[in-house]
Amino acid sequence: PLVMGIESSCDETGVGIVRGTELLAHALSSSMEQHVRFGGVVPEVASRAHLEAMVPTLEQAYAESGIRVQDVDAIAVTSGPGLTGALLVGVAAAKALALAHDKPLYGVNHLAAHVAVDQLEHGRFDQRVAALLVSGGHTELLLVDDIVTDITMLGQTIDDAAGEAFDKVARLLDLPYPGGPHIDRVARDGDPTAIAFPRGLTTGRDLDKHRYDFSFSGLKSAVARHVQHEQRMGRSISTADVAASFQDAVCDVLTKKTIAACVEHDVDTLIIGGGVAANGRLRHYAEERAAKAGIKVRIPRMGLCTDNGAMVAALGAEVVRRGVAPSALDLPVDSSMPVTHVVAA
Ligand code: ATP
Ligand code: MG
Ligand code: FE
Questions:
Q1: Distance 89 CA to ligand 3 centre (A)
Q2: pLDDT tens-digit profile of 46-65?
Q3: Any stretches that span the bilayer, and where are they (predicted)?
């Protein structure tokens, strides 16, 4: 099926068009620069930016693909989870287009879309896969038996998201926002074993209770304490060592738990998505540990890992292919839409 997808859950306005697993348009506008001076995404600013970017981004997708909304079989839109005001802009646009052109409308889950997008890159997955989603807003470990009907949340962060931890630690180290890429770069000259930072929820009762959950706020506090302590002692800190040691702690835990989950659930394919999938250390550990366990790692190209409309279209195409009933035209947004809920009623 030929499907258009609209994404507006956070700071990216995205419109994608796919035919099955073939990518035809991938138009994107980001309000990231407008959030830089606040050190994080400001919901109200993001909503306004979506409003301004929506029509130009739609036009860009039409121009890229030579396809107009009149031509598509269905319109898919992220209806959750995400920022309510931001989601509302995409959903309102999708409803207007669906109504005006008499197209079926599908409100779909953003997390499932992060997984589905890999089909555009590496082809359909028919077997059970695991997915690690790591971005500024989420950190989830999913077991995907079927991308439309059967996704289980194995674990998630109990405090900060992985990307959020990178951003907060970057701030402590006087690195610009968003901090992930800067920590990644600076860490290349550092020693990942220089400082033994805590690995949250990896031992004793914490591990028993939170087998596949993550916690990064204790790690962030430990980095803050380390920096303050060194300053009090009148020592200059090695930004490279702190960055490398912090990054190692995050990526060690993420990959250790993920691979353990794959082994326990007899999964031989792991998909990694979200902006943190760009991280060099994460990729290194994932490849190394997955190879040892006989697991294949699939990471879509970065432009498809971060938020975009193509991922929504990819999931929409899968939903249409299965003959799922469309969502109602009064479809609400759901800021905390659970991953067990792939298509809104
Ligand atoms: P959402 O959570 O809704 O997917 P988002 O905008 O918060 O949206 P992304 O755009 O997917 O998330 O990713 C941005 C995050 O990824 C930021 O926190 C950023 O610091 C982090 N990031 C980007 N590149 C790297 C990297 N090389 N290493 C670590 N983190 C990175
Ligand atoms: Mg983003
Ligand atoms: Fe996302």
A1: 16
A2: 999 999 999 999 999 999 99
A3: none
Closest CA to 114 of 286, 309, 252: 309
> From CA 46, how far away is CA 34, in angstroms rounded?
8
2 in helix, strand or coil?
A: strand
Residue range 261-275, pLDDT digits in tens: 999 999 999 999 999
Structure tokens given for 154: 């194995």
Atom index in ligand 1 nearest the CA of residue 306 equals 11
* 135 pocket-lining for ligand 1 (C-beta < 6 Å): yes
Number of the ligand closest to the Cα of 275: 1
**Among protein residues, the one whose CA lies closest to atom 2 of ligand 1:** 137
Q: What's this model's pTM, rounded to 2 decimal places?
A: 0.96
Q: What ipTM describes this predicted complex? A: 0.98
Spatial separation of the C-alpha atoms in residues 319 and 119, rounded to whole Å:
13
Ligand 1 pocket residue status of 167, Cβ below 6 Å: yes
Buried b (16+ CB within 10 A) or exposed e, 13-47: bbbbbbbbbebbbbbbbbbbeebeeeeebbeebbb
